[in-house]
Amino acid sequence: MLATSEESGASAIGLVASPRHWPGSSSTKTLLTGDVVEGLWFDRTLEYRARKRGETFGKFEFATKETVALSPLPCWENQPEHRVQSNVRALVKGIEAETDERRKASGRPPMGVKAILNQQPHDRPARSRRSPAPRFHARSGLVRKTLERAYLRFYWSYREAPRKLQEGLVAEFPPGCFPPPASFVDPHPRTGFG
């Protein structure tokens, strides 16, 4: 949801100046005000069955009103609603301040609601950076490299354990893995009698 700045290649410009301005689905207003979130749920199965029977029906005939109850974050679940709303207001103000700093640094304003709504969802970008996806999405390069090293240790430990088993040695599989199943051994081998 962020457009990459061409000047730095790393900084990003937000789509809107505030989460309050986002034109799509958002819980921001509800979290700030405590208002109830309501919407319509369309039972497409009932619509399909009615069409199969040749029935005609209105747009909202198989729609029911649903209410979405938002729960506070676990760290705020024991706080009163007004305190949670105050915390959310502080978060929104922080996002707005960060967006304003980025706008000032880049000299470009956020895209804005009108431009977002005028976009065609199936259009492709004029230019795109194509690079392989990283093995891990992490908050920093250091964390990504740490995860990659841990994965490689896990991988090679897992590869080494079956080899040891085949040689009759004691093998330790790394924690968190599923060792291959053991071979079936008949508990009552035929003795040749009978």
Q: Which features characterize this protein?
A:
mainly alpha, two-stranded antiparallel ribbon, 4 strands, 5 helices, disordered N terminus, 194 residues, 38% helix
Summarize the structure.
The protein is mainly α and 194 residues long.
Write the layout of secondary structure elements.
Blueprint lengths: L2 E2 L7 E2 L14 H6 L3 E6 L1 H9 L10 E6 L12 H26 L6 H6 L22 H26 L28
Antiparallel strand pairs: 1-2, 3-4
Number of helices: 5
Mean pLDDT: 85
Strand fraction: 5-15%
Record the strand order, biggest sheet: 1-2
Q: Structural class, judged by helices and strands?
A: mainly alpha
Number of strands: 4
Please characterize this protein's 3D structure.
The relative contact order is 0.11. By secondary structure, this protein is mostly helical. The protein has a two-stranded antiparallel ribbon with strand order 1-2. Strands 3-4 form a two-stranded antiparallel sheet. It has five helices and four strands. Strand 1 and strand 2 (12-13) form a beta hairpin. The longest helix has 26 residues, at 81-106.
